[in-house]
Amino acid sequence: MTRFTAYLLVLLLWASGTQAAQLTASVDRSRLNSGETVELTLESNDATLFGKPDLGPLQALFDVRGTRQVNQLTTLDGENRATTRWIVTLLPRRSGTVVIPSLQLGEVTSQPITLQVIESETRNASEPLAAVFIEASLDQTEVYVQAQAILTLRIYHSVSLYDDSSLTPLHIPDARTEQLGESRTYEKVINDVRHGVIELRYGIYPQRSGELMIPAQAFSATLVEPVTQDAAPSGPKPGQLMRVSSEQLLLSVKPKPASYPADVPWLPARSLSLSESWSPEPTHSQVGDSLTRSLTLEAEGLASAQLPPLPATEINGLRRYPDQPVLSSRSSERGLVGSREDREALVPNRSGTIELPPVEVVWWNTLEDHLDRTSLPARTLQVANNPSLMVDTPAGTTQIVTTVDSETLWYWQLSTFLLACTTLLGFGLWWRARWQPAILRSTQAGPSPRTLLDDLKRACLANDSHATRQALDAWARQQPETLADMAARFVPLSDALDGLNGALYSETGQHWQGEDLWRAIRTIPPTEGGLGSAGDSGLPPLYPK
């Protein structure tokens, strides 16, 4: 059992290694001048491959100047991955179209790569060359406004340089500049002398027509000189500071052609492509499904910021939910390639056939110098009914399919109208109520204060202590303050009440005289807040004259 498990493990490892083993070939550039070197990189991710690729097929077309090997171990998601790279420096033996053939390492082979080697101008051999010099060139002398012109700076040096070299930043008024990729380093043989080359490329986008002057660029570096035996090891490194400048270049900028439509954005590009993708594919879409449509515009010679928004899908029967555009730019051999992706979610709200119009982009072809149009054809969507949106109907009746946006719309309109009416009614009631007093006077129940006062008067003058007590209590309940409070602030009333209480609870009650009580009640003074006045309470005066 153990032997079978080990055999199975080895078999799986061999199968995975065979499936993943590959030899990938790439170059740092596919266009170069004659006499310049190019770096070929061969990469393998199979750790079981040993040795180095067979470079014999290169001897016929290239001079192999050097080979170095780089081993790298990376960890991704807890998994170790080993890669091996072989970097080969090649010097083409002829100009024109040169193909790097397939190279073999073990059982795997690389793919061939095609190079374009341009014949460069031969220099006069009698003309001495400086140890360090710089060249500046433009890919074209005329360009349209806002179109791309490529400035290439090449710094040649036949001696070694320290790493303190510097180049003045490129700044051009009335033009936008952008460096295209990183700087490149390679070798070139000039008059049988090997030179190291530092190449930088810039994209220049003029913002106005006319003559555009590209200023000279200055490069400075320290030359490495041989160290003499007398020099101190810890002292300053010997060397000569060199400073070289390129020539000024003149670029002619043409205005936008008169034949270009005035109502569309100006797009001068070498090439332009327009593509479309859907997620998911709208082959079996239903009402309410969400379909994501992506339109991608890619232009060679323009930055992504120069690309306009693509037409929106404003179609009856589709709800549209746009997303933020995705902008990106990348460098290529021919300059900058800008890309813009506009995504939108489309939700069908009715069944049937929905026609999407064609999408067209108007642009100016700078390579062939004429007006061009790139378009996507019209598209037809077949939308089916969604069973989850169907209305349940009794048996024997016709089933009606409704959607939220069409047949049931009047329900929402009616409910919205009723809600608006009730809101206005509530607002009117609130407006009326805010002008009413906070506390309404309640209608007084029982006898009026005038009647109670007359009953109290008759009981007092009749010297009937029991009737007087009942009438006094009924009258006091109608007053703003209690009987005790009135007796406390008016001494004659307090004395008269003592006499009434003594007559009620003693044997002399039959001889009580109520005239003093009546007189005290008639002369009770009003309170300080005016609680006893007729003007504040709305009642007739307590003691009319």
Helices and strands in order, then pairings?
Blueprint lengths: L1 H19 L2 E5 L3 E3 L4 E7 L17 E15 L2 E14 L3 E5 L3 E2 L2 E2 L3 E6 L13 E7 L3 E3 L4 E9 L8 E2 L7 E5 L4 E7 L2 E14 L3 E5 L3 E7 L14 E7 L3 E6 L13 E2 L1 E9 L5 E2 L4 E10 L17 E5 L3 E7 L2 E14 L3 E5 L2 E7 L4 E7 L2 E6 L24 H25 L15 H13 L3 H12 L6 H7 L1 H14 L10 H8 L11 H4 L8
Helix pairs in contact: 3-4, 5-6, 6-7
Going by helix content, strand content and strand pairing, the class is alpha+beta
How many β strands by DSSP?
31
Largest beta-sheet details = 5 strands, antiparallel
What's the helical proportion of residues? 10-25%
Q: What is the terminal-to-terminal distance?
A: 129 Å
Summed up, what is this model?
The protein is built from 8 helices and 31 strands. It is α+β, with helices and mostly antiparallel strands. Keywords: Membrane, Signal, Transmembrane, Transmembrane helix.
What structural keywords apply?
alpha+beta, 545 residues, 5-stranded antiparallel sheet, 19% helix, 38% strand
Would you mind describing this structure in some detail?
The structure is a single chain. The protein is α+β, with helices and mostly antiparallel strands. The protein has helices at residues 2-20, 409-433, 449-461, 465-476, 483-489, 491-504, 515-522, 534-537, and strands at 23-27, 31-33, 38-44, 62-76, 79-92, 96-100, 104-105, 108-109, 113-118, 132-138, 142-144, 149-157, 166-167, 175-179, 184-190, 193-206, 210-214, 218-224, 239-245, 249-254, 268-269, 271-279, 285-286, 291-300, 318-322, 326-332, 335-348, 352-356, 359-365, 370-376, 379-384. The protein is built from eight helices and 31 strands. A hairpin with a 2-residue loop joins β15 and β16. The longest helix is centred in the last third of the chain and has 25 residues, at 409-433. Mean pLDDT is 82; it is low at 4-19, 392-403 and 530-545. Residues 313-344 are annotated as: Disordered. Keywords: Membrane, Signal, Transmembrane, Transmembrane helix. The chain crosses the membrane at residues 409-431. Residues 1-20 form the signal peptide.
